[in-house]
UniProtKB/TrEMBL annotation:
It comes from Byssochlamys spectabilis (strain No. 5 / NBRC 109023) (Paecilomyces variotii). One of its GO terms (biological process) is chromatin organization. GO terms for cellular component: nucleus. Residues 406-430 are annotated as: Disordered. Residues 408-425 have a biased composition (Polar residues). This is Actin-related protein 4. Belongs to the actin family. ARP4 subfamily. The keyword Nucleus applies. It holds the Pfam family Actin. InterPro entries: Actin, Actin_CS, ATPase_NBD. Its main location: nucleus. SUPFAM superfamilies: Actin-like ATPase domain (SSF53067). PROSITE patterns: ACTINS_2.
């Protein structure tokens, strides 16, 4: 059967396009927005050529059964020979050939009508808000078109308080500019007004365009004596930004009911979306990697989470998370810099440097610095935001996770300690914004070691992160997640461990995870999968949302405006399990 399908697959770029092609035959859906030929033209595809490489990629379909009894085919992109192809075996043989003829067993009870969810001609927007960045883009595309920081800036201009969103926060160090994040360190929204504004900026700035201005005051309808105002009474003057666009949003596996209800309220009432769905980011990351059942290890900025997913459904009891995310790794790097010899390293951001000249490795920097008078200086939070960018570069270029086997502090079978082995690997150079540069030796292994071994944390009394506990480390999170789920599905989950989140891009992370799991669970087969493509790893949950929302058969899952008005915000708890 796969032989037959391969010719067809070769003509189609991207899983979403194939999804549509399969679904359109069974369920009449073929959105006009994204024909395969159009997909080839999109710049996002050109930037990520591996996503459309015909030789390495194949597409597979997996039948997903949801709690509400709806079955649909999830079409998944996967690498050839990946376990996603094996997942096909889960589909009853009678239904397997041909794949696109599987009975969709749609629940005909009450799917929203085409008019209610916006129709097939409209591409949904997928919004994936994280602690460090917010990703938004059109369903069916391979990468989010809009990627903005979730942080926003605030400053005083005269008596007025002004806000800055998106990449503009990095540009000008305005006097008194302070940086804030509407999301708390536990991944739950703390400031709803500002979260709404940041999210709204993420799609209005690059996807939908700004809201049209009020027709009463935009200068096009000026009439004297307020005649028009009288005629327009009762007419909604402000058009809502998503009035024509279905919206699929992602959330963490531990998002509380109140926050979920508030989210649908904002989407329906403030943005006016005709259809809405809220999906767990763990489930979406599983879909993006071609699996309906998987154990998702997501290393984000604020958290590391472990999410068991079975048949496309999150196993809530098993969801574990801890604050040892990418920002914690940044704090460990700062601790390493403080204890650096021969002298501590200070990060001086670009905006404080007017000129610099090259210096030898380890020599003091030769730079002239800018100074701001106290009343013109930005807030300290601005400096730490800019420093965080240097720390991310440092993670990309220098930091390494000890790949195992064993902890960094343990001794190998031949009696040589792993620390000694790490000293024999060549160092990695890094240049700071002020020109100071140094080769980092085995110390570069120490900053991420505490993700696996709590005792290895570099102590720092000034760090906002308390010393980690063993229960917060990744191996313990995984053990706890598995202990909380049915014993029968544990082997299957261990065989389908999926690594996602930008924080997991640290060198050696996947190897170490694999060694830790093989050591902790020797009997069932452990298999760790991590997309090699950087954007697939960074945008795992967004990509899963993009695939899901572009499936024709998914339309029954949307919560339509009418349903929201009938049942209230609590419908999100019933529909989005
Ligand atoms: N190449 C890289 N190697 C290692 N770490 C990286 C790399 N690129 C980004 N990071 C780190 O990944 C973190 C951001 O990850 P991600 O974008 O997955 O988080 P998020 O989804 O915004 O946050 P959260 O999942 O906590 O809500 C940051 O701490 C950043 O420094
Ligand atoms: Mg995340």
């Amino acid at each position: 059967m796969w032989r037959e399908r391969e010719d067809q697959i070769d003509d189609i770029v991207g899983s979403a396009a194939l999804a549509r092609s399969l679904c359109s035959r069974s369920s009449r859906l073929a959105p006009a927005r994204l024909q395969p030929k159009d997909l080839r033209k999109t710049s996002s595809l050109r930037q990520t050529p591996t996503l459309c490489s015909r030789s390495s990629q194949r597409t597979a379909g997996v039948a997903i059964r949801t709690l509400s009894g709806v079955s649909f085919i999830l079409v998944l992109r996967c690498l050839r020979d990946s376990p996603a192809l094996e997942a096909i075996a889960d589909i009853p043989t009678s239904s397997r050939a041909p794949l696109d003829c599987i009975d969709f067993n749609m629940n005909p009870s009450m799917p929203p009508s085409t008019a209610e969810y916006g129709g097939d001609e409209v591409s949904a927007i997928v919004l994936d808000p994280g602690f460090s960045t917010t990703r938004a883009g059109f369903a069916g595309e391979d990468t989010p078109k809009s990627l903005i920081p979730t942080y926003y800036g605030k400053y005083q201009a005269g008596s007025e308080e002004k806000y800055i969103y998106g990449d503009d926060i990095y540009v000008t160090p305005r006097p008194g500019l302070s940086i804030h994040n509407p999301i708390g360190r536990d991944g739950i929204v703390e400031d709803w007004d500002m979260a709404t504004k940041v999210w709204e900026y993420s799609f209005t700035s690059r996807l939908t365009g700004a809201k049209p201005s009020d027709p009463l005051s935009n200068g096009l309808n000026d009439v004297q004596n307020g005649e028009l105002a009288a005629e327009m009474e009762g007419v909604e003057t402000e058009e809502k930004p998503l009035s024509d666009t279905p919206l699929l949003m992602t959330e963490s596996g531990w998002n509380p009911t109140k926050a979920r209800e508030k989210t649908i309220e904002i989407a329906m009432e403030q943005w006016g979306t005709p259809a809405f769905y809220l999906a767990r980011n763990g489930v979406l990351a599983a879909f993006a990697s071609g699996k309906a059942s998987a154990l998702i290890v997501d290393v984000g900025a604020s958290n590391i989470s472990v999410t068991p997913v079975h048949d496309g459904i999150i196993l809530k009891r098993g969801v574990q998370h801890s604050p040892l995310g990418g920002d914690y790794v940044s704090s460990q790097i700062r601790a390493l810099f403080k204890s650096n010899s021969p002298q501590p390293i200070t990060i001086t951001p670009h905006y404080l440097i007017s000129s610099k000249s090259a210096v030898e490795a380890g020599q003091p920097p030769q730079a002239t610095y800018k100074t701001f008078p106290a009343d013109k200086a930005p807030d300290a939070s601005y400096r730490s935001l800019i420093e965080e960018r240097t720390l991310t570069e440092f993670k990309e270029c220098v930091v390494q996770v000890w790949p195992g086997p064993g902890k960094l502090s343990s001794t190998g079978p031949n009696g040589v300690s792993n620390e000694e082995l790490s000293r024999s690997t060549p160092g990695r150079p890094f240049e700071f914004p002020d020109g100071y540069n140094q080769v980092f030796g085995s110390d570069r292994y120490r900053v991420a070691e505490s993700l696996f071994d709590a005792k290895a944390a570099i102590p720092d009394p000034d760090s906002p992160f308390p010393a980690p506990t063993p229960a917060q480390t990744i191996p313990d999170l995984i053990k706890n997640a598995l202990n909380a789920v049915d014993v029968d599905i544990r082997p299957h989950l261990l065989n389908n461990v999926v690594v996602t989140g930008a924080g997991s891009l640290l060198y050696g992370f996947t190897d170490r995870l694999n060694h830790e799991l093989v050591q902790a669970f020797p009997s069932p087969r452990v298999k760790v999968t991590a997309p090699g493509n950087t954007s697939e790893r960074k945008f795992g949950s967004w990509i899963g949302g993009s695939i899901l929302a572009s499936l024709g058969t998914f339309h029954q899952m949307w919560i339509s405006k009418k349903e929201y008005e009938e049942h209230g915000p609590n419908i999100v708890e019933k529909r989005c399990k």
